[in-house]
Amino acid sequence: MSESVPMPGVLLAADGVPLKARLARQRRLRQLKAVLLVLPLMLFLLLTFLLPIGALLTRSVDNPEVAAVLPQTGRALATWDGRALPGDDAFLALAADLARAKEEKTVPELAKRLNMEEPGFRSLLQKTARKMPLEAGEAPKAALLDIDERWGELPYWRAIARNGDTVTPYYLLSSLDMQQGVDGTPQLKAGEERAFLSIFGRTLWMSFWVTVWCLLLGYPLAYWLSQLPARRSNLLMILVLLPFWTSVLVRVAAWIVLLQREGLINSALMSLGLTDAPLELAFNRVGVYIAMVHILLPFVILPAYSVMKSIPPSYMRAAISLGDHPFAAFWKIYFPQTVSGVAAGALLVFIMCIGYYITPALLGSPEEQMVSYYVAFYTNVTINWGMAAALGTLLLAATLLLYTVYQRLVGSDKLSLG
After folding, report:
1. Widest CA span in the chain
2. pLDDT, tens digit (0-9, with 9 covering 90-100), for 216-244
3. Could you list the residue range(s) of the whole structural domain that residue 248 is in?
4. Which residue, 1, 159, 360, 411, is most buried by CB atoms nearer than 10 A?
């Protein structure tokens, strides 16, 4: 029996298997082991992070109340143009739906949803439902108008027609101070009805200034720590990390004690004769800025310090020895190499700022509340999950946009500046 002769140029393993096939098999086994190792973490993130967020975001467009309680009315209004009162079939369908809703006790949730669209709808529906069902042979249109003349006004019928589907842009549009017009196109609300655009603007403005102050304070401190001997810098770094061991709520409460009119800072300033009266440092924007900068400052220092520590000091010495001014050498040689770490810290601070809740809620006035305050308000007070989810969706979109911009600017392997 003749032995198999290997093909020329093909390397074989000890068992006669081609070496290339053996290496490919081992590579696949290593990849499978890596996937199995991270699989529990992926499942944990999926079940505890991605699925809850996805479920919450769907609430921003979820609209089951009207479609479930007024199905016949929705079908009757499907082809209605909204420019004149609907026909008798719509009044008949509404009377039948309200009679069934009264028996099933679903009128309150319907009234709550439609009252968001048109003020006064709650009282209209409750008043009408009490008279349901109509007497046999009674004309539904005349009967409904006799119960309440508001059934002869177009805005109430338009609100029902807009919500005939189980998906609605209402919450997202309201979060942007917009509404659907008669023809269904989005349009800005009247000036006195707008609120959320200014809230989003305030959130971004306050986050911007907190980030700026963190950069102005954190960059020099990170540079100083990077220039110290390792033993001293490690000791001082413990002081930078120390606030992480204290609850944010405790730190905010401590700032309230320090910044209030009878607090330690005002008492010290007045005892030194620097001020004649207490300064307003708490329950305004100044106090919010001070507390947020104190809490978020380490998030700038740590990435900046890690980048600065990796820059060889010989670069600066070489530039100075070649005749460059120390400041010019710092700006042209040292600073560009730290931009990636500083940008990462600034992005992290800004993203955390736009979602901040506790500090503005405790140390700020109503004029300092940010978007996250209203997410909590709609979640815990008014139980309006749609608006809470819509505001959360916009915050998430802003965060993803910022991260995309960051990746475009400093996400490359090497950041080129000029």
Report:
1. 110
2. 999 999 999 988 888 888 888 888 888 78
3. 196-410
4. 360
